[in-house]
Write a structure and sequence with these properties.
7 strands, flat, 53% helix, alpha+beta
Length: 544
């Protein structure tokens, strides 16, 4: 294990379960090299974790928390013990692990281990269920002093499901209602549409009638009842989106309750119903929407850049969030003005100064088209003024084009440069390119290209190589401007880094990088990078 022994809450980490004892026995498995087996130390860690989780909540919640704690532990064990390999190998390791765990727990008589065995027997998948259930039944015959709540672990029945959606389309909550005479509860799943419809939070809530009362009291939501299979399909699709993130911005409750949630959904008698495929908006449909806006009363006396700005809003709403271009939301305004647009567009204060008035007009147009309550529209319009300084801070001091208001698109995959500069220790801020003697178009290109090359080289190869990348980018724009048309602007910084890595012998057998790994880091293909780098060496005389 490579993780720290301490978790985020200070307790012993689940990731130090295997190999806890230096003398842990090893059991051979046919056709599989197994270098560790379940041990007393593993189960002691599971017991410790379960005890800490139970101690943090009232007794009424113990059945739910025991189920969640053990489901989380089982999922983390699976990630460690059988994360990769052929299916037969994975199954053999998994079966051996749970059989040995069942044997160890079956031989004990203390109440705590019985609680753990009960939870495992009712949450672990098919590979371990049978030996654990046998051990559980055997202990049940002779076990004394079993708390009543233990019999209710993982025994709750899903009776209904509702979906509550914010009228601004920022997100929705799927509420699963579990009926139990002693402790009725809900499992609430929040899906964030502003982050691509990922599951951002999972938690156990009060009975469904109290949840509905809270939603209705708060207002600004629509509530509908759905079949459990439909709710399961919505949640599982959103969980798939969440797993596509390397580091999704989820809550701690998400990490704790996700195992419970997945276990319960996969045990439904009905198969989950996949949600309808979200309709795509073609370029022609997007242009048509822009035209409809320009012909409306809301577009009167807007700046000349109105069509361009509205199209950027539509592209952002459709390609980076869920809900469509006509969604009116203060959160969406924040994402567009403060984060996406400054990363997407390099422009001067003339262009960015036109954005707020155009976005306000678009929000009023969209609010009328969707018949959104006026207070929701006003809230989104007011948010434009709140986040306008973010645009002003991103504007270039000098015009970047042949006339004020012209803008240059940055690479779609790039991050906010300022954030990246701050994150890279020792790299500092990039040098300012010398724009003397360049026309406006060349100056704009160099202002984008050189800092990107500097940043990418520093981040990928190390700060030592950042100045060389900056110099090559500057020479490319000054000495071979016609070469730029032979590749996308976003490809040139990557090709410069590729070239530097090879010139300094950082790629190859025995070296830190392989061609494939470097290309992956640069979000490109070896063939594209090799071809573009060759254009540089064939055209520019670069120092050794």
């Amino acid at each position: 294990m490579t993780k720290s022994p301490g978790g985020r809450d200070g307790r012993r980490s689940h990731l130090r379960l295997v190999g806890s004892e230096p003398d842990a026995p090893h059991a051979p498995t046919a056709g599989v090299e197994v270098d560790t087996t379940p041990s007393v130390a593993v189960l002691e860690t599971l017991l410790e974790t379960l005890s800490l989780d139970l101690a943090a909540v009232p007794v009424a919640l113990h059945p739910v928390i025991a189920e969640a704690s053990v489901a989380r532990s089982a999922a983390m064990l699976a990630d460690q013990l059988w994360p990769a390999g052929r299916p037969d190998e994975i199954g053999e390791v998994e079966r051996f692990f749970w059989a040995d765990a069942a044997r160890v727990l079956g031989e004990r008589r203390d109440p705590e281990s019985f609680v753990l065995l009960t939870s495992l027997a009712r949450t672990v998948g098919p590979a371990g269920r049978l030996p654990l259930q046998r051990a559980h039944v055997s202990r049940l015959r002779t076990q004394e002093s079993v708390p009543e709540w233990v019999t209710r672990i993982a025994g709750f029945r899903l009776t209904s499901a509702i979906v509550s959606e914010d009228i601004t389309g920022d997100g929705l909550s799927v509420v699963l209602d579990y009926d139990d005479e002693q402790h009725p509860h809900t499992v609430v799943v929040f899906i964030d549409n502003n982050l691509g419809a990922i599951v951002k939070d999972v938690f156990v809530g009060p009975p469904v009638d109290r949840v509905l009362e809270a939603y209705q009291r708060g207002g600004r939501v629509t509530i509908r009842t759905v079949r459990p299979a439909t709710a399961a399909g919505i949640i599982l699709q959103a969980l798939g989106e969440t797993r596509d993130y390397d580091d999704p911005p989820v809550s701690e409750d998400f990490e704790f309750f996700t195992g419970l949630l997945v276990n319960r959904l996969t045990q439904l008698p009905e198969r989950p119903v996949r949600p309808p495929i979200r309709p795509l908006l073609s370029p022609r449909q997007r242009e048509q929407l822009v035209e409809e806006f320009l012909e409306s009363r809301y577009a009167v006396a807007l700046p000349d850049d109105a069509a361009d700005i509205v199209r950027l809003w539509i592209d952002h709403a459709v390609d980076h969030t869920v809900g469509g271009p006509l969604r009116v939301s203060a959160v969406l305004v924040e994402l567009f003005l403060a984060y996406w647009l400054p990363r997407k567009v390099l422009a001067d204060s003339t262009y960015f100064g036109a954005v707020p008035v155009v976005v306000k007009a678009w929000l009023e147009f969209a609010g009328e088209r969707t018949q959104l309550p006026l207070d929701a529209v006003d809230e989104a319009v007011d948010a434009v003024d709140v986040w306008q300084p973010a645009l002003e801070a991103a504007a270039m001091i000098d015009p970047v084009g042949s006339k004020p208001g012209e803008r240059v698109f940055l690479d779609d995959a790039s991050n906010d440069l300022e954030d990246a500069y701050r994150a890279l220790a020792g790299l500092g801020s990039p040098p300012q390119p010398d724009l003397d003697g360049l026309d406006n178009h060349q100056a704009a290109t160099l202002s984008v290209l050189a800092p990107h090359a500097w940043l990418m080289a520093g981040e990928t190869l190390g700060s030592t190589y950042a100045p060389d990348a900056f110099d090559i980018a500057e020479r490319l724009v000054r000495d071979a401007p016609d070469l730029l048309a032979k590749a996308r602007l976003s490809t040139w910084p990557r090709a410069i880094v590729w070239l530097l890595a090879h010139r300094h012998c950082l790629v190859g057998p025995g070296e830190p990088l392989t061609p494939y790994a470097l290309a992956t880091d640069l979000s490109s293909s070896p063939a594209t990078l090799r071809k573009t780098a060759k254009l540089l060496t064939d055209t520019l005389i670069l120092p050794r």
